[in-house]
Write a structure and sequence with these properties.
The structure is a single chain. By secondary structure, the chain is α/β, with parallel strands linked by helices. It is built from seven helices and eleven strands. Strands 1-8-2-3-7-4-6-5-9-10-11 form an eleven-stranded mixed sheet. It is globular, with a radius of gyration of 17 Å.
């Protein structure tokens, strides 16, 4: 596979919307690609194309048992997946999406649930002017190796397993997203505390008059 490295500055420059349309079309057809987020570079592709799932694992040399989160650039993409989420969960998405909140929702394909997040990164936001399906997201590194933030290293290590990389240069350091899961309508567990602390989650729910225990 011959991969391409596309500079984000060129992609989002005025008058280059046709380039983003082409990128979106490739993704819809099943391209596997590396892209920037608010935290780190991710590797992913359309969740609607069956071959993409295994292609990502192959590129990362990652065990197929490790799940990937679903990412989007607008809340409406996840309306159906949030159907069984308590009202308090919907309230949190309105407060923190796009942003660094990941919610694990019930899922038919994964008994442990599927993690979903809406990103506010400029690339993701622009991409979702052209697509309306989630993309897989997992760290852009070979499984078993520590994530290296250098875009040159990322492209070099994954280039044989991807179609293209959206290169935004060195990303500013950031804490990871906070991952939560509702045990029931009155209890939410913080599975990973990131940018949003347990205190912030609890205070936000309290401000919305939700009686939810944050664990």
């Amino acid at each position: 596979m011959m991969s391409e490295r596309i500079q984000l500055d060129k992609l989002i420059a005025p008058g280059n919307d046709h380039l983003m349309y082409d990128i979106a079309s490739q993704i819809a057809r099943g391209a596997v690609f590396v892209y920037p987020t608010e935290t780190i570079y991710g590797i992913g592709g359309s969740t609607q194309v069956a071959s993409v799932h295994s292609a990502i694992y192959e590129a990362k040399k990652r065990p197929a048992s490790n799940p990937m989160i679903h990412l989007a650039g607008k809340n409406s993409v996840f309306n159906e997946m949030l159907d069984n989420t308590p009202d308090a969960g919907h309230y949190l998405t309105k407060k923190f999406w796009p942003g660094l909140l990941t919610i694990v929702v019930t899922s038919e394909c994964n008994p442990d649930g599927t993690a979903i997040r809406v990103s506010g990164h400029p690339f993701i936001s622009m991409l979702y002017n052209h697509v309306d399906f989630p993309i897989y997201s997992t760290s852009a590194n070979v499984s078993g190796e520590q994530y290296n933030p250098d875009p040159d290293y990322i492209f070099s290590s994954l280039r044989h397993g991807i179609d293209f990389m959206i290169d935004a240069g060195h990303l500013p350091p950031s804490q990871p997203s906070t991952v939560i899961k509702f045990s029931d309508s009155s209890t939410v567990k913080v599975l990973r505390e990131g940018v949003l602390t347990k205190t912030v989650i609890a205070e936000t729910l309290h401000s919305g008059a939700y009686s939810v225990t944050v664990e």
